[in-house]
Sequence to fold (496 residues):
Amino acid sequence: MILDTINKENDIKNIPVGELAQLAAEIREFLIEHISRTGGHLASNLGTVELTMAMHLSFNLPEDKLVWDVGHQAYTHKILTGRKDEFDTLRQFGGMSGFPKRRESSCDSFDTGHSSTSISAGLGYVKARDLAGGDNYVVSIIGDGALTGGLALEALNNAAENQSNFIIVLNDNNMSISPNVGAISSLLTGIRGDNAYRDINDNVKSSLKKIPVYGDKIVSQVQKAKSGIKQLILPGMRFEDMGLTYLGPVDGHDIGKLCKMFKIAKKINSSVLVHVITEKGRGYEPARLKPEKFHGVSPFDVATGKTFGTSKTTYTEVFSRKICDMAKKDDKIVAITASMASGTGLARFQKYFPLRFFDVGIAEEHAVTFAAGLAAGGLKPYFAVYSSFLQRGFDEILHDVCIQGLHVVFMIDRAGLVGSDGETHQGIYDYSYMNINSNSEEEYLNHLKKLKSKSMYDTGVEVTKDDEILILQTCSTHKDYHNYQKKYLLIILRRV
Fold:
């Protein structure tokens, strides 16, 4: 088997071009076989085999940095960096993580688990490289779903101002693009990536700007006209409008085309987005037909695709039936999910009450404040969400729900120890951050008094509702620091 020759990073570069398709097939067979025994994320990994191979062919690890978003699609990356023998321990206690881990390999650039982080982290790597005078490449991979997260959009906004090479790979597995548009886009992408084109473009702009009085206006009008035309024929001009160079779309299962696209992307001295079209579950029909079912799957029979397990009713199933029964009797009940209708038990609610069901995408912060708005509008919102993902919306829980005393119900799924997904997915923090007790001035005052009673130093000033409070959790100057780690230094600032 060709796969047997892959024992460390960059070994794939020794594989003849004519054998790469066979290697991709062997990787898929390997993933299906092993995940059927251990469980894990199958559909997403089957969809990124060729994309991962192309990145490993185009870049040098660990010098170049691949920053994965979420990371549950990085199994092929782990195989190509010499970890295939560890797959029998995948997601087991003390075994190989189901996500990239810096402590696990120097080729894992950033720990992941939650979505929408890769562009921010990648841009940090870029700035660190530039300040150190380095010349390595940084590649952030993000899915179309994760791109809906606010953090990703904030990072894109920041990346648009970057003036050095930074490659963002958009792994799009849910968008259909017509052949004609794709052909035009591919043609113009090659032109736009050419150094001569960029030089001419810059020279024309410079010359026009030298025209007295009207130069800047002419440039502005030309750009507006050009932008309007491009919007008609190119799918990625929204990214261009943000200040990013757009390349694609490209077939994410064509290794040759992918490598050519990365070759172009490496020449661009700014932030460039490479749009890649992939298919979830590719190579295994049950996963291709039902990618959601095989997103995170327990051990299953390869021949039938059926999972092994008990028929016990889960808490998620109980909630699923209960909220539907309640909604039949109360038309003010509405339900919200952050792109996890099936996982949180809301698929049934969506079926029976489609107009009262809201999927906001991977955007937990928005979901919380959206729920607060629904409640303020007189409805009874239920937000069903995994515990580890809800913590991303803590500020909104406090600021937009609790302080206003709005009636929002949080159905917190996967709370407590969840095991196989590791520390990024443990639902062990909701007990503390949901115990806020600040939905009234009286409760807020009592909370402050409790903090004051635990403080290392008492300022001697009584806490009243007219005071502004600054809490600093620091004890580093205390002679017995370790015994006071959980104490507070409370400083009270009087309002003027």
Q: What stands out?
A: The chain has three domains: 2-177+235-289, 315-433, 441-494. The two ends are 76 Å apart (CA to CA).
